[in-house]
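The instructor's notes for this session suggest beginning with a concrete chain rather than abstract definitions. Hand out the sequence below and ask the class to guess, before any prediction is shown, which regions might be ordered.
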Amino acid sequence: MRVLAALILSLMLAFPAVAVQPDEVLPDPVMEERARDISAGLRCIVCRNESIDESHAELARELRLLVRDRLVQGDSDEEVVAYIVDRYGEYVLLSPPMRGSTIALWLAAPVLLLLGLGLSVVYIRRRAGAPAPTEVALNEDEAARLKEILRE
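After discussion, reveal the predicted structure:
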């Protein structure tokens, strides 16, 4: 039992591991933290729903290096993100800003959730008000046929 608990614990600790390679890490810990914060909000274009900080794809590595390069050149966090968005489009943002083109994305989930809840309530109320099914006894021919089938 202890072995199983240790295995589960070690797997849980390994889960948040990131894909940043040792040769990518900046010597300045403050700047490295800024790079990690930025790359955690950028989507890997290859992996779709992983940040570039978590992805092992080559393109994610290139984006991580680009973020660090821009920071070393003196760009602010906003300038780095703007540079990458200009280059790859808003799709690269894991959390796109709420404005005209993305408002449908932001509103779709809550609207669909409310619609699903409403339909569920209507379905449950209709089922509760429906008459209970009645049992109909077998007639003599059906009862004889059933006995014959059960003997076989």
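Then share the key points. The chain has a mean pLDDT of 83. Helices lie at 2-14, 29-40, 58-72, 77-88, 103-129, 140-151.
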